[in-house]
Write a structure and sequence with these properties.
By secondary structure, the protein is an alpha/beta fold. Helices cover about 45% and strands about 10% of the residues.
């Protein structure tokens, strides 16, 4: 009897070990892989981008080239009055002590109110690829009151907060993506970007590989940041990428030349202004609307000088 009881006990222990091996060890392995993956993902987090110091004056070398144009006089198309509004974070701030992020944040309800204000005032929402033919004088029936919403960097909230508003309001926008920041904490996952790219409401533009200030960089380094960002996005999305944004609005004549050579048809800056021409299609002006809504926003856009 005692021997039989011992055998039964051994069988129970053996079966429990087998059960542990079959179910718990694989579960533990999956858990360890998940934790490891999460820690790796967090380790790739990008330090917060400080967008406070942005270029607001046309570089001297660009102004010199612009003023030195010679040759037969050609009648250029008239300037187009088009506000290009720039946004970064669109979220409800979590950390009240993060003053830099808060200064670059638009609350989703404010963005929604701004869009509704602009729609009611008769604005038509377009993208840079819609604008370029008009700047070149190749569009006859261009909207009387065009406007562009631009979202820089490719933050996660573009997908979670902005995209639902754009779909609800049925308006277009452009987003400028930092290629090497995809799939990192706080930024879009590739599958989210691919989903955005399928929408007729979203134009995808490039914002370099690593969000570096391009003015004064070596030619090779600048070319890599510009050209490779276009190559990678086109390979990822199977779409033509024709619009570019300068990180921090930083550019010089070399940067403009390389943006053209890389195949982009336009680029946005951080120079304030509201009237664009064919001459500045590689440094289109942009405006920060802040928290303005209603008549205050319309009054702001009615100005000629910024």
């Amino acid at each position: 009897m005692k021997l039989s009881a011992r055998k039964k006990k051994k069988k129970i222990v053996k079966s429990r070990k087998k059960l542990f091996g079959l179910f718990f060890l694989p579960l533990l392995a999956v858990l360890l892989v998940a934790v490891g993956g999460y820690l790796y993902y967090q380790s790739r987090a990008i330090p917060e981008l400080n967008e406070e110091n942005q270029m607001t004056v046309l570089p001297a070398d660009v102004a010199t080239v612009l003023g030195a144009k010679t040759g037969p006089k050609v009648t250029s198309p008239a300037p187009i009055r088009i506000p290009i509004l720039v946004f970064h974070y669109v979220e409800y701030p979590q950390d009240k002590n993060d003053t830099i992020r808060i200064s670059l944040t638009t609350i989703p309800s404010i963005l929604e109110a701004q869009i509704e204000t602009l729609k009611a005032a008769g604005y038509t929402f377009i993208t840079p690829s819609d604008l370029v033919p008009a700047l070149n004088g190749k569009v006859k029936n261009f909207p009387k009151k065009p406007i562009i919403l631009s979202f820089d960097d490719g933050y996660m909230d573009l997908y979670t907060d902005v995209f639902p508003i754009l779909k609800q309001e049925k308006v277009k926008a452009v987003t400028y993506i930092i290629v090497d920041f995809l799939n990192r904490p706080n930024f879009l996952f590739s599958f989210q970007l691919e989903d955005l790219a399928k929408s007729p409401l979203i134009e995808i533009g490039a914002h370099t590989m690593d969000h570096v200030a391009l003015k004064g960089m070596s030619k090779d380094a600048t070319w890599y940041q510009i050209a490779q960002s276009r190559i990678d996005l086109q390979k990822e999305l199977h779409l033509p990428i024709t619009s570019f944004a300068y990180p921090y609005g930083s550019f010089d004549q070399q940067t403009i030349d390389l943006v053209k050579q890389a195949g982009f048809t336009n680029a946005v800056s951080t120079l304030p202004g509201i009237k664009d021409t064919v001459d500045n299609k590689y440094y289109l002006y942009r405006l920060h609307p802040g928290y303005l809504t209603g008549q205050e926003l319309l009054n702001f856009l009615a100005q000629d000088k910024f």
